[in-house]
Amino acid sequence: MIKSILVAVDASAPAAAGREHAVQLAGLYGARVVGLYVLDVRLLEMPPYLEYSYEGIPLIPMPTEILEGFREKGERVLEEFRRSVEGRGVKVECRLEEGVPAEAIADLGATHDLVVLGKRGEHAKWGKDLLGSTTEAVIRRSVSPVLLAEQEAGSFERMLLLFDGSPAGTHALKLAADLASHVKSSLQVLTVGEDERQAAEIQGGARSYLSAFELDPRFVLAQGEPVMAALGHLEEEPADLVVMGMQGHSLLRRLILGSTTEQLMREMPMPVLLTP
Fold first, then answer.
1. 245: pLDDT strictly greater than 90
2. Using CB atoms within 10 A as the burial measure, which of 30, 164, 195, 237 is most buried?
3. 161 in helix, strand or coil?
4. Do the bridges between strand 218-223 and strand 241-245 make them parallel or antiparallel, or are there none, so unpaired?
5. What are 78-127's pLDDT values in tens digits?
6. What band does 264 get if pLDDT is binned at 50, 70 and 90?
7. In this structure, is the dihedral angle defined by the CA atoms of residues 87, 92, 96 and 97, taken in order, positive or negative?
8. Can you tell me the mean pLDDT for 22-32?
9. What is the pLDDT of residue 148?
């Protein structure tokens, strides 16, 4: 059950898409939405296009007037967020915090049922990875489910669950079932194993759990390398939302922390819901 949704707010298109997803889910669940803008304390010491880890560059304190400019921007972005959400009958709160964004988002997210943020933030043009560094850090740190938004928001009519039988995968199974029931979306369950027999054994738990819901899920088995099998399935049968676990045997580590991150995420241009 989702009753409190934390949304990481900035001026980027993915953040705006995340807001739309949050409003949609809040309306279905009767949940509150909390918008969070984090004033990045690192920007107070050096500009975003420099490597923070680069040695030899002296830190230059930010002038007070520039600091106030950042703060005013945050307040303005949050006010726009508030107006947009309130206008659709959803209870909304806003918070302006100072700190390292990933830490603030993940730590505050621990007291919410769902954390929503864009795959890339407003400073993405300075980054070198397809996923923003803040997004990756939030995923590693979060103890709550995380919904990663794309450039545009759409409805979740077709949902794909990547189920591997791990504890995180089982959490993903439960959340996917609840979400599909509320959204009235179709649900496919994909399990990848070294062979179909192994995959079928793993998928048995998902079949048993979903039998208690008024859903008509489709179960798919595949063998081979999990990431490529999942991407191949999505090419044949696109989904509006992919749900997976963060740990254990899940695809998350391969997709986000693997050496082929950019290629894989370019091939997966839809929102992803990750569970711890």
1. no
2. 164
3. strand
4. unpaired
5. 999 999 999 898 999 999 998 999 999 999 999 999 999 998 765 554 34
6. very low
7. negative
8. 96
9. 92
Residues in the chain: 276
Across-strand partners of 193? Answer: 223
| pTM, full prediction | 0.85
Amino acid at 156: F
**Residues with Cβ within 8 Å of residue 99, at least 6 apart in sequence:** 38, 39, 40, 41
Can you tell me which residue has the tokens 């307040």?
Answer: 75
Contact 6, 25 (CB under 8 A): no
CB 169 within 8 A of CB 161: no
- Residue pair 25/180 in contact (Cβ under 8 Å)? The answer is no
Residue 197 tokens, joined = 């027999």
Which amino acid is it at 151? Q
| 238-148-99 Cα angle (round to 5) | 170
Beta strands in 224-275 (DSSP E): 241-245, 272-275
Q: Report the amino acid identity of residue 244.
A: M
Q: What pLDDT, on a 0 to 100 scale, did the predictor assign at position 130? A: 44
Q: In the predicted model, what is the mean pLDDT of the chain?
A: 83
Q: What is the largest CA-CA distance in the chain?
A: 65
Q: What three-state secondary structure class fits 117?
A: strand
Q: 121: which 2 tokens? A: 């933030």
Q: Which of 73, 233, 92 is nearest to 162 (CA)?
A: 233
Nearest to 90 by CA among 33, 156, 6, 21: 33
Nearest-angstrom CA–CA distance, 26 and 31: 4
pLDDT at 136: 82
Distance CA 265, CA 255 (A): 7
